[in-house]
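User: Please fill in residues for this 712-position structure.
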């Protein structure tokens, strides 16, 4: 619609009432971190979150691409929408009165805005009509179904506003249009009536059905789901030349101005408080599954309206659970299993990136939640136990792959192995992948511990050809290279490039004394090949690891400071030096340090990061290169928890090795320029300094490596 110029008071009111976390969480999965929220930036591709949202400032900022602003700016950018349209939507959402600069346009605008309000009113009247009909004689069958078959109490029936659509063709039509004077076009737009094919009137969409109202998050009726009860509808359908076989058991409202099936979750308005309290959401398939769970006291349950979960539905749920826990309980029959697979596929990327914790619950004997609760009759105790032990979705998929397979049979073993490899290839996070590689190897070994390491190697070879366990990918073993029989099988994680074994290689003593090639004059010692310079990317990785640990592990900060001072080490990369200077400045500020020292360890790391982000807002280009360190991914977090001392040792050794290599190259150059025949003492001095620096560099290179085998 054509939107006139909005009054500044309207714009200001919309901006003040809009909750930026509420607005952005519809588009970005946000996770609380200290006082703020973080997530993956929607404006550029990234794997680690650099997008920060501040509720106190009502602002967002991305440390990766420098996007920033308020709620209005975000909606304009993410949807490529004009300013006035965004403000108008916020006014409608947060119930802000709309004023325009041109009074003559105000009436036109209000009439356009009032359509949704009129639809809400029409649907509310229809819901009351259905509830009243349920308590009349014509609703006796539906009432009996709810109380006997579904075993619902009167309190639950009223809580969910359940009703009954009478048998007649035009019962609701006459009530709304003739009695309540609702415009027929409005009733049609609400999805309650349909035009006859003959063109001579309308008939009710829902007839002889148990009616289940669907509410938005504010508790307003936006649509209905209707369940068949008898054969009258079949007769009615035949009169309209519709096959009775086409009459669905459940019939939902069509897509309307208010209702979209793929964006709506049944019972979310009733479950959101419990989801926040329990810090997880239970997603079931059908209306009555959700209703039965609520009646049992499991009130953090919602239903997906019989369709696979969409990203829009998931984002709605994630707004209410801080730990982002979702538990899918679809039917355990073949259709339910496929529905679970479809639901996982829809949100797989979120799970792969670690943005959500997704678990799967299939109830025994293929039952749905409603049937299971009725059969057990224990008030939901056993269901709660199953919820508590539900497997993560990756574990669930592995269970599906190995179920009913005899791994002693070669063909079945090969089939399972191929499916496991296919699944493992989808896992981007190295630590998560390594965990599941070992888990799958244990399954394939069938309890034979001696075979586990072999299957680990085989799986890794198929998943990441040429890479070892946890390898950074810097080189690989040649096809012809074989380990000696007594060599320990392991994959090294290191901050130094792998060296191929070669005669007369780096630091290897030779028959002629291991001297480097001499320049002027005759050499008193034989030559030695110089080392290739260490990889720049590996040094950058080492420095980044050290900074990451300092930021997120307060208990190790002093140790890092001590070792840097003791060995007089400096960061080689300008962006790392910049961040280290900012850290030292923040730490040296008395007021900041007192604030940081007065809180817990977890809060300490968040406060330091928060201070750094605020302090560095004016340094956009510099902070963009190190912002990923503020939000470590799952791999970095696991690394910090399990092997911090080794990482610090390897990182500082790598930094010192760079200094040693500069030193021995310097003395090598001096030695090569010195004539040993005319100045043997100086030549010998330069050589000894070179040799000591070289040996120290080789020793440090060994310290740069540590095996993950010891951590398994």
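Assistant: Residues filled in for all 712 positions:
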């Amino acid at each position: 619609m054509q939107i006139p110029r909005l009054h500044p008071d309207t714009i200001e009111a919309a901006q003040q009432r809009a909750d930026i976390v509420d607005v952005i969480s519809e588009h970005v999965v946000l996770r609380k971190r200290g006082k703020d929220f973080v997530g993956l930036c929607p404006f550029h591709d990234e794997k680690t979150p650099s997008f920060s949202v501040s509720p106190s400032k009502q602002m967002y900022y991305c440390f990766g691409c420098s996007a920033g602003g308020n709620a209005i700016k975000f909606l304009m950018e993410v949807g490529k929408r004009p300013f006035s349209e965004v403000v108008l939507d916020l006014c409608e959402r947060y119930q802000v009165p709309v004023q325009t600069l041109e009074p003559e346009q105000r009436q036109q605008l209000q009439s356009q805005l009032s359509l949704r309000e009129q639809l809400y009113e029409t649907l509310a009247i229809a819901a009351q009509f259905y509830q009243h009909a349920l308590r009349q004689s014509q609703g006796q069958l539906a009432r009996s179904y709810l109380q006997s078959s579904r075993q619902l109490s009167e309190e639950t029936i009223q809580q969910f506003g359940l009703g009954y659509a009478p048998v007649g063709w035009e019962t609701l039509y006459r009530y709304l249009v003739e009695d309540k004077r609702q415009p027929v076009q409005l009733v049609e737009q609400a999805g309650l009536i349909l035009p006859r094919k003959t063109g001579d009137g309308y008939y009710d969409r829902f007839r002889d059905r148990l009616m289940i109202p669907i509410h938005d998050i504010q508790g307003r009726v936006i649509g209905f789901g209707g369940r068949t009860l008898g054969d009258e509808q079949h007769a009615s359908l035949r009169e309209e030349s519709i096959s009775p076989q086409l009459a669905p058991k459940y019939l939902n409202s069509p897509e309307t101005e208010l209702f979209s099936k793929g964006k709506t979750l049944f019972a979310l308005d009733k479950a959101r408080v419990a989801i926040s309290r329990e810090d997880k959401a239970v997603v079931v398939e059908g209306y009555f599954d959700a209703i039965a769970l609520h009646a049992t006291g499991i009130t953090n349950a919602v239903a997906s309206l019989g369709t696979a979960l969409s990203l829009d539905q998931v984002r709605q749920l994630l707004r209410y659970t801080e730990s982002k826990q979702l538990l899918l309980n679809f039917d355990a029959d073949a259709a339910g299993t496929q529905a679970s697979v479809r639901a996982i596929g829809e949100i797989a990327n979120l799970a792969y990136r670690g943005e959500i914790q997704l678990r799967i619950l299939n109830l025994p004997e293929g039952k749905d939640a409603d049937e299971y609760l009725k059969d057990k009759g224990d008030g939901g105790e056993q269901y709660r136990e199953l919820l508590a032990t539900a497997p993560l979705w990756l574990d669930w998929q592995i269970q599906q792959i190995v179920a009913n397979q005899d791994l002693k049979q070669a063909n079945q073993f090969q089939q399972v192995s191929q499916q496991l490899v296919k699944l493992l290839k989808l896992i981007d996070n190295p630590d998560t992948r390594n965990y599941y590689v070992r888990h799958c190897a244990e399954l394939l070994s069938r309890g034979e511990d001696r075979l586990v390491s072999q299957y680990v190697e085989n799986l890794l070879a198929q998943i990441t050809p040429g890479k070892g366990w946890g390898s950074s990918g810097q080189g690989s073993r040649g096809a012809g290279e074989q380990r000696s029989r007594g060599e320990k099988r392991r994959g090294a994680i290191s901050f130094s490039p792998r060296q191929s074994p070669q005669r007369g290689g780096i630091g290897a003593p030779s028959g002629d004394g291991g001297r480097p090639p001499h320049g002027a004059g005759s050499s008193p010692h034989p030559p030695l090949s110089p080392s290739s310079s260490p990889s720049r990317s590996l040094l950058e990785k080492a420095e980044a690891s050290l900074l990451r640990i300092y930021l997120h592990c307060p208990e190790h900060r002093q140790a890092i400071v001590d070792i840097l001072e003791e060995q007089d080490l400096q960061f080689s990369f300008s962006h790392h030096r910049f961040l280290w200077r900012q850290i030292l400045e923040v730490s040296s500020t008395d007021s900041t340090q007192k604030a940081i020292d007065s809180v817990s360890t977890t809060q300490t790391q968040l406060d330091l990061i928060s201070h750094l982000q605020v302090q560095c807002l004016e340094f956009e280009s510099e902070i963009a290169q190190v912002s990923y360190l503020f939000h470590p991914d799952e791999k970095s977090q696991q690394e910090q928890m399990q092997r911090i001392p080794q990482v610090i040792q390897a990182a500082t050794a790598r930094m010192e090795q760079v200094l040693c290599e500069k030193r021995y190259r310097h003395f090598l150059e001096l030695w090569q320029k010195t004539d040993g025949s005319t100045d043997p003492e100086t030549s010998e001095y330069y050589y000894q300094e070179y040799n000591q620096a070289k040996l120290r560099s080789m020793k440090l290179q060994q310290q740069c490596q540590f095996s993950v085998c010891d951590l398994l």
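For context: The chain is about 50% helix and 10% strand.
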